[in-house]
Write the structure tokens for this entry.
Amino acid sequence: MPGQEILGFHNLCVTYGARPVVKNVSFALARGEAAAIVGESGSGKSQTALAALRLLAPEASTTGSVKFEGADLLTLPEKRLNAIRGRRIAMVFQEPMSALDPLFTVSTQIGAILRHQAGFSRRAARARALDLLDLVGIAEPALRAHAYPHELSGGQRQRVAIAMAIACGPDVLIADEPTTALDVTVAARILDLLADLRQRLGMAMIFISHDLGLVRRFADTIHVMRQGEIVESGPAADLIAHPQRAYTRMLLAVAPPPRPPRPLEGAPEILSARDVTVRFRLRGGWFAKGREIKAVDAVSLVLRKGRTLGVVGESGSGKSTLARALLKLAPAAGMISFEHRDLTPLSGAAMRPLRRSMQLVFQDPYGSLSPRLRVGEIVAEGLRAHEPSITRAERDAQAARALEEVLLDPALRHRYPQEFSGGQRQRIAIARAMILKPKLVVLDEPTSALDRSVQIEILALLQHLQDAHDLTYVFISHDLAIVRAMADEVAVMKDGRIIEQGEARRIMDAPREAYSRALIAATFQTGGI
């Protein structure tokens, strides 16, 4: 049970110049308590947590106080703060790839924390790193300890980030959107892991999320933030059952509507794949040999023109690798045919003319757009390769029309990506694909980094574009609620294979495979459907 106060926020304000982003936030966290801070992007959730640890950008200014066991973290000398930060109060960040160093193995990074923060010897740190990997549920910890971050799945990376955060046994753990980019089953396991660690280690926890449904079974207390302010707080059960503010009710109610069924029969085939296989080789470590894995294992499928195939499965199931293989962006064995043309023997140069018809929209609207180019230049990038003869003025005019089609003001094309929200950036990424008038678009987790209300807007846009241009989509997502809203047909992947495929409503309502049923059950568990 929660005990006395361990961390208190008192009239915390954060401003960037004249722009306030956190406004008079006050709440207390008791020992052993799990508190959730919930709100849409830009509500000030992460800024509140980062301010407590003095991790804000240099241009930010703070007022008020954040007291840990009576000491104000905002005014502590740097040396005393460093003795608390990471050791007594730790943080798990939203995107583990940004928190993990790509140049060092997992065990090296965990060991560095143990040596510098807790005074472990190199040998003791190495042994403790293996114990921590086992504690957070990493399979084959002796093998994974010698892996680099890019060799792990999203769920595995997040577990490593949690292992690093709990390495020194903190009193408070702050988890900032730790399940946003994970599929539903992995998200459910991460939530269970955090709840288990909280009980076993006696930690208090602040859980930051844009998903009120996700935290309902996890938190003791919920604080709802909007535009920098806490607009509603209370015990989790009471707030979920009887929300007082319209904004809180909106966060609870928002869910994408299922797509009305459309017949697959009669729609012509646009792409087919037979026995597509992609292999990777993992290096071994001190205690284990390297091995070969089949990321995609003998997959066969058919895509119908104007329809959407949803591909779902856990992290590491092969979804994104399959998508890249279908577009000839990953080396693969087997046969792939596009508009009845065999792509298998085609070289990169021979594939280039077909690229405009087969486009890819990436998961991360922040990392997929160059910060050095203006939006108009980004959208028109493909025209430089596929229509080099047109003038700069014509490219600019086409970019303006493409932005207008995704419901963005064409006048904004002279700005840079960092001046836009996540939803606006994803619209820019979609415009970049649509400007080439493709026939097939692979959408790789295009909404996972967005709030649910923004997700619904993007889904409506994608459906409009599909209807207007008779587009074929491969829609990859870990979120079955999103897939249900988009897909005519669903393929469920596990360990590189498609284990179940069929009409979307049938898969969602009456899945045949136990694994498919587990995915849907996990979606209910995390509040997705």
User: Anything to note?
Assistant: The mean pLDDT is 89.
